[in-house]
Write a structure and sequence with these properties.
The protein is of the alpha/beta class. Helices cover 43% and strands 9% of the residues. A five-stranded parallel sheet has the order 2-3-4-1-5, sandwiched between helices. α1 packs parallel to α2, α3 packs across α4 and α5 packs parallel to α7. The N terminus is likely disordered.
């Protein structure tokens, strides 16, 4: 009796396709000012300690940018304090940190809010050395955060950038242009499949296109839905 076919891997970029998010692989369309600001701050060891806050809806690239800054600072051998909603029991502030990064602030529990406030105060007014940079992100402007007031007001007093997620028509246009530049044809059927089965933020879609182009060249096949399924099963 024949064995049933093995289930196909889940169609998501977390199966090993995605590299570490960086500032270089962030697609900035519509968010150039925020990206340039972060490049300047992350690339300058004498950076101003004025905090920065990013906000925008899901898929606008907030977490990508924070992780990209973390990688840029690590490349400079800088130490970073990191907290997101999955940091259930945040550690004490470390005075050796060169920056504090706070992601998904809108989801923080009371314990996380207390830790974030402590980190913020210690980063801005450290017992030793210069003030440290604080970079935070959430899905809404600071005034709308349902957080303790002393943390909420501090998050919003520095540089504030709203990140814009592209609409579907804009994503299609950018993706189509990128494919044309690679000499790759994407049918409407393939485009629909990419936009409904994978992460919809532009950086992830551009990464997917790069992976598909490479796989299509290695297998000498056009980019079709069967090719995408084959890549997910074999890569």
């Amino acid at each position: 009796m024949s064995q049933p076919p093995a289930p196909m891997k889940q169609m998501a970029l977390d199966i090993g396709l995605a590299p570490v998010p960086t500032l270089d692989n962030f697609v900035a369309a519509g968010n150039e000012a925020a990206l340039e600001h972060l490049r300047l701050w992350a690339g300058n060891p004498m950076r101003s300690p004025v905090p920065t806050y990013l906000w925008g809806e899901g898929g606008s690239g907030k977490s990508h940018l924070l992780r990209g800054v973390r990688e840029a600072l690590r490349e400079q051998d800088s130490r970073v304090g990191w907290m997101d909603a999955s940091t259930l029991h945040p550690p004490e502030y470390d005075e050796h940190w060169d920056a504090v990064l706070l992601d998904d602030c809108q989801l923080y529990t009371a314990e996380q809010q207390a830790a974030a406030f402590n980190w913020f105060v210690n980063a801005q007014n450290p017992p030793h050395g210069p003030a440290r940079w604080v970079l935070a992100a959430a899905d809404r402007p600071p005034a709308d955060l349902q957080l303790r007031e002393d943390l909420r007001t501090r998050l919003g007093w520095g540089h504030v950038f709203q990140l814009r997620a592209l609409g579907e028509a804009e994503r299609r246009s950018v993706l189509r242009r990128a494919a044309d530049e690679r000499g790759v044809f994407l049918s409407d059927e393939v485009m629909d499949f990419m936009l409904t089965r994978f992460a919809r933020d532009l950086s992830s879609l551009m990464l997917l296109l790069e992976q598909l182009d490479g796989y299509a060249l290695r297998t000498q096949r056009a980019i079709t839905i069967p090719l995408i399924r084959s890549m997910l099963e074999n890569e």
